[in-house]
Amino acid sequence: MPTTTGYDVIVVGFGAAGAAAAIEAADRGARVLVLDRGYGGGATALSGGIIYAGAGTAEQRAGGYDDSVEDMRAYLEQEVGDAVSDETLQRFCEQSPELIDWLKRQGVQFRGGPVPSYKTSYPTDDFYLYYSGNEKAYPYARHARPVPRGHRVLAPGMSSGKVLFEHLRRSAKAKGVEFVPLCRVHELLSDGDGRLCGVRYRAMPANHPHARRHRVLTKLTGKAGTWLPGLVKGAVEHAEPLWAAAAVDGEAHARAVILAAGGFIHNREWMAEHAPEFLKISPLGTPGDDGSGIALGVAAGGMTDKMGNVTAWRFLSPPSAFLEGLTVGRDGRRIANEDLYGATHGNVMMREFGGAGWAIYDAPTWRKVKDQIREQTQLFQRLQLIYLFTLGHKKASTIEDIAVKNGIDPSGLRRTVDEYNHGIRSGAGDPAHKEPDLCPPLVTAPFYSINISADSSMFYPIPGLTLGGLLVDERTGEVAHRDGGTVAGLYAAGRNAIGICSNSYVSGLSIADCIFSGRRAGAHAAATLQSASGDRDQL
Asked: Which residue of 326, 399, 404, 501 shows the fewest CB atoms closer than 10 Å?
């Protein structure tokens, strides 16, 4: 078994959290080794590349938006809840502008300026700043002044996440960080005092004859896997024997280990145990999001929390006119105000309505949706709209008929529609408090429906990811020990750890937390090593 020494910090996982940890530690003089079971990037490279940031970033100021630590915190308190302490949330908000500046120093580019005048789940290439959460929706807007905080990495289409990670990868390499791909850590090593001192792993040599074929199969598990989970399963089944036949054992030693290996959305057993109501959603991430990093932490004495928290994304818009309909469950009851962020609305549907729901529209709204497509959508969104406007909807001449066609209780749907229309016509407003400019009466036949259920169609999936993980010391990122204190030399970051977004997700909050927590772990690990080195020098 080859043994590698000479490192100060080993990072397990090379997505946003792992890259941030590696860069921060290297900047502070640490010799860093990064091990990843894939080729790097993780869920970050598959994402839309949104960073949730505020408190007065340069991009906000360029768009004429005045934000403050207080405003940002007032909003995030509603999303974060008890996921982290008040002190940690305050620190996250205070450091938010500097987080964007830090990314810029790694080569990442952003653009300020105007935001879309309509609500969208992901902006067109005309916009790189937008309202990426619930800022303008009820009840959030009642407690915090709405400000746009979704900072999209400057790149065309859906390549922003890929471009973000590529800048982080290049920065890490330039700072001397060593990277070993196709490497699976299966054991953490500790010294006689119980301090972490390294890892055992199996890795496929990059020059192995199977490596090229393995890489091709791995690429099939990327973004297409969100739409075609079966493709991921098939690719993994073919790639796994190649890796197993080629992998060799190895061991690496260091004074600190940082776990940053992602969540567990691809671990069906864990999902069934911790979040069975979310089993029908489409896994968002890579096959490496199997909980292996969390399991390593638990084996070392760590403990987990919020393992049942999952974010499920049912975005209705764009086009924004899709928010003007009503979403209901099988009994015809309203799910929630449709202008909520897609994951907030989706989680209500998953937890309170069994993952089943329908969006109901009348003729004028249906026409309005079509009129907005060109201005408001990206190519990948238009591909989904092709399905919705062909096979993905139903049509009927009455509310009762559209209910029957979908298996919805007709009297329940009629009651919901009548209550909504009465509120609009009487001036009282929408009973669910949707924004007034998204509330036309729903009265004109024909009526249309879209099945927004978790299992509605492979062409209209609900993607999602897990939010729970290892408990950590929020000042340092060290993994909390089940017997008290921390596991000496062990850190966790990103979706391996409890963090800012562990109760509620909005676009950009997970990557922002990955950068925040990754830098925290890398900085403390490096500082601790320097302190220990100084103590030895004085002896």
From this structure: 404
pLDDT digits 0-9 by tens, 158-207: 999 999 999 999 999 999 999 999 999 999 999 988 899 999 999 998 88
Cα–Cα dist 369/287, whole Å: 36
What CATH architecture applies to the domain 3-40+162-204+247-308+464-538? Answer: 3-Layer(bba) Sandwich (3.50)
**pTM for the model:** 0.94
Q: Where are the domains of the chain?
A: 3-40+162-204+247-308+464-538, 50-152, 314-451
DSSP 206: T
Give the DSSP letter of residue 25: H
pLDDT tens per residue across span 424-435: 999 999 999 999
Measure Cα distances from 497 to 262, 413, 465 in Å: 9, 42, 14
Cα–Cα–Cα angle for 405, 406, 410, nearest 5°? Answer: 80
Residue in 30, 92, 42, 96 with CA at minimum distance from that of residue 286: 42
Q: Is the dihedral of CA 504, 506, 507, 511 positive or negative?
A: negative
The percent of residues above 70 in pLDDT, for the chain, comes to 95
pLDDT of residue 240: 82
Neighbouring residues of 485: CB distance < 8 A, sequence distance ≥ 6 = none
Q: Specify the pLDDT at position 514.
A: 99
How distant is the alpha carbon of residue 299 from its chain centre? 26
The low-confidence residues of the chain, meaning pLDDT below 50, are 1, 535-539
3.90.700.10, 3.50.50.60, 3.30.530.20, 3.30.470.20: CATH of 314-451: 3.90.700.10
196-203/183-190 β-pairing: antiparallel
Cβ–Cβ < 8 Å for 288, 38: yes
- In one-letter notation, the amino acid at residue 89 is L
For residue 439, count other CB atoms closer than 10 A to its CB.
Answer: 22
CB 491 within 8 A of CB 259: yes
Distance CA 321, CA 373 (A): 10
Which amino acid, one-letter code, is at 377? T
Distance CA 35, CA 13 (A): 6
Residue 46: other Cβ atoms inside 10 A: 23
Q: Which of 397, 401, 404, 434 is nearest to 419 (CA)?
A: 434
**H or E stretch covering 50:** strand 50-52
